[in-house]
Design goal:
Helix content: 25-40%
Bound molecules: 4'-deoxy-4'-aminopyridoxal-5'-phosphate
Oligomer: single chain
Order of helices and strands: EEHEHEHEHEHHEHEEHHE
Largest sheet: 6 strands, mixed
Structural class: alpha/beta
Number of helices: 9
Radius of gyration: 19 Å
Strand content: 15-25%
């Protein structure tokens, strides 16, 4: 093997931190907003990190054998990450997901050879979780990865995303803005930042209502609360409207040259809201928004033209 070359699993992480220069116009130079470009992971999302952590830990503990079956529920990105790792690391994937998950996702999953179990769209990601629990009970030899309750999920972010952000901001990060899905990104990175950059605020962002278009994110009050969620980790809880996320996605493409996904739009919008508050208060700030995935995952959605 060539020195410096990597396996797919090793190519996950160490994503760029990109400074926003246009959406931040009018803010003082001392207030900076950065996008953590998680769409640049080999599977195209932040969930590559959690999936790698979950699979490697399960292989090490003997919960998943070579050639064995991994079962989980995913609204898409974790599923794509497992699907990518399955041929690379030698296991089979059975994935429960709502039948209304977008076509790009289903086609991507099938292209990696994953077996899809489609669940009731009215029950959203909770329907997929309930189906996975049922299948797990009926098939005890399968490894049920259970990303919502698996500590390897948040630990992957504690081990990778957290240290990367401290290094990339030279410890100057003042606000870490993360979405709430399984909560792994917020819990793991948040814990690392609390320990290593005590002045940094951990900001958890949720959709503003149970009926929202922020794919991958959860409205905690009305959803099954993930077992790995600890309400003590975030310093702040904020909400974002789907329309504002859509508008921010459109602006990021046209003004910054960054094609981001919808939850990323919600997190960048929240980062800009914080930037304005900090500027008004006369404080310097280094704000990082996790950009969980890229806009190419949502090209068949209808929000791209509105208001543009
Ligand atoms: N945004 C998108 C697009 C996602 O796929 C996910 C994962 N469900 C999240 C945000 C939330 O990340 P986490 O599961 O780490 O809370």
């Amino acid at each position: 093997m060539l020195r410096g070359s990597q396996t797919v699993a090793e190519a996950i992480g160490n994503t760029p931190l990109i400074r926003l220069n246009r959406l931040t116009q009018g803010l003082p130079d001392s207030v900076e907003v950065y996008a953590k470009a998680e769409w640049m992971n080999p599977g195209g999302s932040v969930k590559d990190r959690a999936a790698r952590g979950i699979v490697l830990d399960a292989l090490e503990k003997g919960q998943l054998a070579a050639g064995g079956v991994l079962l989980d529920a995913s609204s898409g990105n974790t599923g794509i990450a497992y699907a990518m790792l399955a041929p690379a690391l030698g296991f089979k994937l059975k994935l429960c997901l709502p039948s209304n998950a977008n076509e790009e996702r289903k086609k991507t999953l099938r292209a990696y050879g994953a077996e899809l179990i489609l669940t009731d769209p009215a029950l959203s990601s909770d329907g997929a979780i309930l189906k996975a629990r049922e299948l797990s009970a009926a098939n005890p030899s399968w490894f049920y990865a259970d990303q919502y309750n698996n500590d390897s999920n948040w630990q992957a972010h504690y081990q990778t995303t957290g240290p990367e952000l401290v290094e990339q901001t030279q410890g100057k990060i003042t606000h870490f803005v993360a979405g709430i899905g399984t909560t792994g990104t917020c819990m793991g990175t948040g814990r690392y930042l609390r320990e290593n950059t005590p002045l940094c605020q951990v900001v958890a962002v949720q959709p503003d209502s149970p009926f929202h278009g922020l794919e991958g994110m959860k409205h905690l009050e009305s959803a099954i609360v993930p077992g790995i969620y600890d309400g003590e980790v975030p310093h702040q809880q904020r909400v974002c409207q789907t329309e504002l996320a859509h508008e921010t996605v459109r602006r990021m493409g046209k003004e910054e040259g960054l094609l981001i996904g919808i939850s990323a739009g919600a997190l960048v919008a929240t980062a800009l809201e914080i930037a304005n508050e900090e500027a008004k208060a006369g404080r310097a700030a280094t704000i990082v928004a996790i950009c969980c995935d890229g806009g190419s995952r949502y090209l068949s959605d209808h929000f791209w033209e509105e208001g543009s």
